[in-house]
Amino acid sequence: MSTHSNDAGSLVESSVDDGVLVLTLNSPANGNALDVAMTEALSDALEHINDRRDVHCVLLRSSSSRHFCTGGNVKDMQSGSDLMSGGVEDVRDRLHRSLHRITRALSALDVPSICAVNGAAVGAGCDLTLMCDIRVASTQAVFAESFLRLGLVSGIGGSWFLARIVGYAKALELTLTSEFIDADAALNLGIVSKIVPGDALDGEALSLAKRIAQNPPVALRMAKRLVREAADASLATTLEMAASMQAILLCGREHKDAVGRFLEQQAAKKRTHM
């Protein structure tokens, strides 16, 4: 196991455990709100992951037992500070340069990403979970596309992800009602893959991340990219991508090593049953 942690006082703590980069939102008193400081810290943590060969999976979690992320800071909205200061063009430009850094970085990850949702994921916090590839929730998790309650829309791009996960009609219903849904409803909609008790969430999510991370790293990144691109591509384009990726992998050392290990394991099983 190779583990490295950064300063415990940072807004986003990070550590690497058996190929899993664990990123922990660490502003519990603020509900892990995506203010300027948190946005910059999370963006900085995400933007260089593709260059790290020691990372094969990302796990995003919260240090809070009540909130995963409560989205934008409502007090800042009222005061006109933080991301909301200035005129229309200033705010638009700031959204592109701040919050959208998170969206672009998460959507561009070559390695799979898992989100452990332990409490409230509201507004942009809900969108943050949707940007991850897989979501595991505790029984206390709640989700809400709650922007209309504040006379807003999703400014971080969550509508793009939500519609692809739950379908157009349900995405529109969740958006227009600002309805809060619990973990069971999220499971039924396909927003989360699994529900576990709160005290088991971190262990379950990390176990899943480690199972994914143990795969051959080049093939792992290609497998994620193929599924991601296939979601919006034609069959012909998908087949072309699949053929190109498979040819690269079949001719590579990673595949040959994996085949060797598989055959050795099969031989060992036969010997134990003789």
From TrEMBL:
UniProt feature coiled coil, ranges: none
MF terms in GO: catalytic activity
Protein name per its UniProtKB record: Enoyl-CoA hydratase
Organism lineage string: Bacteria, Pseudomonadati, Pseudomonadota, Betaproteobacteria, Burkholderiales
